[in-house]
Please model this.
Amino acid sequence: MRRDHRVVDPNRAPKNFAGCSALALMTKAPRAGQVKTRLVPPLTNEEAAQLNRCFLRDTGAAISAYCSSLIAPSPSRPSARGVAVYTPVGSESDYTDILPTDFSLLPQRGKNFGERLYFAAEDLFKCGFDAVCLIDSDSPTVPAGNFAQAIELLSLPGDRIVLGPCEDGGYYLIGLKGLHRELFERIDWSTEQVFQQTSQRATQIGVRVHELPRGFDVDDRAALHRLCDELLGRNARDRIAPRTTEFLRELVARDDRGRIWSL
Model:
C-alpha cells in the first residue's frame, strides 16, 4: 500500500532542505474537465486527465531518477529533491499513485500564474532550499539531463537564473538562486513573449541568464500530434516518457488513429 506524500508547511519547515536544490513540479490535480481542456476535443475530458496523469508520472520519474543518482553530493553535484507544488488544497490524495514516494507536496498560493510561480519560489526558499527550479507539467519529453544541467548551473558562484525555453515562446523550467519578483510581473503569460520578456527582465535587473536545450509543451492539438510523432512515429526515441507512450499507443490502437494523430 502506497503511503501519502508529506505536505510541507513553509512557515513551519525545519529548514532540513539546506544544501539542497528543489526540482518543483507545478501541477493542478489531474481531474477530468479541469486539466488539459484545450485538448478536448480530440480527447474526451477523461482521456485528457489520464494523459495529464501520464505527464506527471513521466516527469516525476525523471526528477526522482536524477535525485536518486546523487549518491555522493559535492559542491559540483549538489543534492536535489522532488516537490509537487499543487492546487487545489484537499487534492493531496490524487497524487498518491502518480508521483514517486520521495516527492513532497507544497500547496500553491496566488491568484494569477505569475503570482503562483513567485509564491512557489518564495515558499520553497522558506523551506531552506538553496536553489529552486520550477518545472511545468506539460513537457513529458524533457530528459532528466536537462534538470541535472539546471542544478549544476545554479551551483555556480554568483546570482543567475536558468531558463528552459519552449518552442512556443514560453519556458518549461525557470531556475533561481534567489527571489526576484520582477521576473514574474508584467509578463504576457500564455503568449510567445514569455521567454523573451523574462530574459530581458533578468538582464535589466543584472542577473545572468543560462539557457537549457529547447523543449515543447503539449497544450493544443498540433502539439499532441507532434507528441505522437515523437513517441510513436518511425523515428521515435526509446525510453522517453514511457507512461505517456503506453497511453497514446493504447489510445491509437483502440480508436481510429486519425482522431488524435492525423494521417
Notes: The first strand starts at residue 6 and ends at 7. DSSP finds six helices and eight strands in the chain.
